[in-house]
Known about the structure:
- This protein is of the alpha+beta class.
- The protein folds into 3 domains: 5-197, Alpha-Beta Complex (Spore Coat Polysaccharide Biosynthesis Protein SpsA, Chain A), CATH 3.90.550; 209-311, no CATH class; 314-346 and 380-424, no CATH class.
- It has 11 helices and 18 strands.
- Helix 1 links the parallel strand 1 and strand 2 (35-42).
- Helix 5 (209-225) packs antiparallel against helix 6, helix 5 runs parallel beside helix 8 and helix 6 (230-245) packs across helix 9 (286-296).
- The radius of gyration is 24 Å and the shape is globular.
Amino acid sequence: MPVKVSVIVPVYNPGPYIEDCAASLLRQSLPADAYEVIFVDDGSTDATPARLDALAAAHPHVRVLHQENSGWSGRPRNVGIEASRGEFVMFVDNDDVLGDEALERMYDYGVAHGADAVVGKMAGKGRPVPVEPIRGALPVVAQDVPARLPGPHRSALPGGPAAPGGPRLRHRGVSARRQRLGAQRLRLLLPPQARRRRQRRFPALRPGRGYFKNLREALDVVERYTEPGPGRDRLPRRWLRVEIADRMSGRRLLALPDDYRREVFRETHAVVVERFGPGAAPGLRPGRRIVAALIREDRYDDLVALAGWEAGVRPRAVPAGVTWQGGALRVDLTAEYGTPDGPLTVPAGAARPAADGAPGDLAEAVSWPAAAADEGFDRATVDLVVRDRDSGASFFQPVEVTRERVPAADGGTRSGADGNRCLRRAPEPSFGTP
């Protein structure tokens, strides 16, 4: 039987956590001759090499490749790709656990929809995972992803380069169809699939000179395959937001020691000035646009002051009632943003964000996102996510929202939303009781 899926697992000193990962791979509902598991041991010094060799000796569809330590998952993944035979390639970390039908369901889903790539739903196990991209199973997405501009470790994507062997910004791969290596675009599909564990055995990449060297290399790829203009500005915008502005904001920035924080700021300032054109920042939401502007203008103290304010802003949700209505569970709640001093308010006459440049002081910086939030309030919504206690999977529920502006004592307004969700009772639930 042709190999449908090759699962590549980079491994380095996982200790006992490899047991859960290996057990979940052996429990897959695909026939054993329809998939293969390739463990690439990156020079482990614990008992892992012998444990994996024993596993491979007992299961013909399991292989183990040993190599000297490279320190990162990029090279092991490349080695696994070269050795793989499957129509699809899937990257799994040594502390991940797959659902028993994950490979079969993802393969069938991808084939049925003619997909170049399949992304499974993740569930947190002791750590949060992004839930916004996984609201449900999507046979198509609104916007295709250019296949020739993958993230640094998206090595299995059609048309994408091999994963660099050293430390890189990303190391999460996706499944990809080998027979479509010439494809120019991807469709991402999201069936429920995986459970992600907390423990990480490859070292986390700490921002520093090597980190920003890798970022420059990723930007080189964008410039190599795109022409100047809105398209080129849009692609680096994601890096400006996630790799720079998000990291240099709020609690994430304040958690760094001051000397190290200053060093990262210097490196960040250099890469923003050198590599991000004027069209990248205006597409960011106001708070992150302010951060990017402060970095560009070399205003370290103002950036730290803004982070202190951001760290105090938190959403608050208060349940107002839980009732059964017509066979559905209705949850009423009220939600608003607050600060340590009380509800977050929008000052009267708050300044609107400038198209370019940074605010003059903290008060103006605070007013920009507040004003933008007030302008967009009529489109605001509230999410209620139900999480399965057994698997950790998250499920979004239907919502009705009532928005309300409340006058504040200082002449401004505070905005909140009342929401309710109907949790429909499934006649035969396929998941555990929330």
